[in-house]
Amino acid sequence: MSLIQAIGGSLGRQEGSNWSPESQAKIIKEVSEQLKELQLGTVVSAMDETNPQKFRQNWEQYDVTTKENVGQMNVHTYWPGERTAVRDLAKGEKKRLWMSEVDLGGSVPQDFDHIEPGLELSERIASDIMNLEPRAGCFGKLLKTK
C-alpha cells in the first residue's frame, strides 16, 4: 500500500496535489521518520501552498510535532496577500523560507515583443523579496518558448 493510499487521497481541486492539513501532517510525519531512519540529513519542506493566506491557515492547524518535522517552509505567491504573515511565521519558527512558485499571468500576458510582462514579473520578484524575505525563489515558466 502506498503512502497516498494509506492517507486517503488528495482533495483534487486543481492540477497538483491538494491535501487537508490533517493529511499533510500524516505525510510530513512519515517522510520525516523515513529521512531520519536513512540518516540523509535532508529536511522536509512543506507545504507549497498556492498563496500565503492559505499557507498561514494550514500552518495554524498543524500540531507542534508536525511543525517540528518541517525544516523548510515553502509557499507560492499567487494572490500575494499575507506574505508578511508567512515571513513572520518562518522567523518565529526559525525555519528557512522559500517562495516556491509564481508565474506571469497577472494583468499582462507573455509577449516577447514588449517590455510590460518583464516589468510586471520584476515588480513581483522585488515585492516578494521585500515582503516575504525568502531565502530563495522559484519562478514557473520564466523562460518559455513561443
Outline: elongated
Question: What share of the residues does DSSP label as strand, in percent?
Answer: 5-15%
Main β-sheet, spatial strand arrangement: 1-2-3-4
Helix/strand-derived class?
alpha/beta
| Biggest sheet descriptor | 4 strands, parallel
Average pLDDT rating: 85
- Portion in helices: 40-55%
Spell the H/E element sequence: HHEHHEHEHE
The number of distinct helices, counting runs of at least 4 residues, comes to 6
- The tally of strands reads 4
- Low-confidence runs: 1-8
- Ends: how far apart? 42 Å
Please compute the radius of gyration using only Cα atoms. 17 Å
Characterize the structure shown.
- The protein has helices spanning about 5, 20-40, 50-60, 65-70, 85-95, 115-130; strands at about 45-50, 70-75, 95-100, 135.
- With about 150 residues, the chain is an alpha/beta fold.
- The protein has a four-stranded parallel sheet with strand order 1-2-3-4.
- The chain is elongated.
